[in-house]
From TrEMBL:
Residues 6-40 form the Putative zinc-finger domain. Belongs to the zinc-associated anti-sigma factor (ZAS) superfamily. Anti-sigma-W factor family. This is Anti-sigma-W factor RsiW. The chain crosses the membrane at residues 81-103. It comes from the Bacteria. The keyword Transmembrane helix applies.
Length: 224
């Protein structure tokens, strides 16, 4: 049996460890290992370094998994943050819009009676009650709200936003002539709200202090 040197055995040992050497080589190596402490310990190093590398690979895999988990978490957090950002942005925009709308566009403030001047109340030949309105606050009203009460009171309320920018209101008949036919109002309200109420009075102005235009029994001058 040929004896081989430790250098040769240690060159071969990795192949032996991985079991990719021939049976003859394996036999030689095992004969040598049986007698050589140095080469046995070298083989142990190979085994342990292999184990280490397996451990290292597993550790690495854990880190990769951890990194992937972190990446996923990060992208989730990012999309969550993006959605949160969108919601916050939309909310702020909504609040700003509502604020703008509420202050400048939402017609909720009735024009005060003192700022309203009514004249030329009359009955037109076609049955309409007509009157001239002047709003003297320098702005006028942006909108008019009509409201028929159960007692037959028909309330016409000119309104404007909290903050007024427009000096020339869009609505035509807040300043000028208003024509209203009580029979037509009654028919309209019946159709729209199912409420058949005879119109017994007409008011123009704020709900708390409206100006009486006409009440049933009043004799109005008839003119166009
Ligand atoms: Zn040896």
């Amino acid at each position: 049996m040929t004896r081989i040197s430790c250098d040769v055995v240690q060159d071969i040992l990795p192949l032996y460890h991985d079991d990719i050497c021939s049976a003859a080589t394996r036999e030689l190596v095992e004969e040598h290992l049986a007698e050589c402490e140095d080469c046995r310990s070298y083989l142990e190093q190979i085994k342990s370094s292999f184990n280490l590398s397996v451990q290292a690979m597993e550790q690495n895999q854990l880190e990769v998994n951890g990194l992937q988990r972190f990446k996923r978490m990060w992208s989730r957090a990012q999309s969550a943050a993006f959605v949160k950002g969108l919601i916050v942005t939309a909310s702020v925009a909504g609040i700003l819009f509502l604020g703008y709308w509420g202050l400048f566009r939402w017609n909720v403030i009735p024009v005060a009676s003192d700022d309203i001047s009514i004249s030329n109340i009359r009955l037109r030949p076609n049955g309409e009650i007509a009157f001239r309105i002047q709003i003297k606050d320098g702005y006028g009203a942006d909108r008019v709200i009509f409201n028929l009460h159960d007692d037959g009171g028909y309330y016409i309320t000119p309104v404007h936003p909290v903050i007024r920018l427009n000096k020339s209101p869009n609505f035509n008949f807040v300043s000028g002539e208003l024509f209203t036919n009580p029979d037509n109002v009654r028919a309209y309200e019946k159709k729209k709200h199912g409420k058949d109420v005879e119109i017994t009075s007409i008011y123009y102005g704020p709900p708390n202090n409206p100006i009486l235009i006409w009440k049933k029994g009043d004799k109005l001058p008839v003119r166009k």
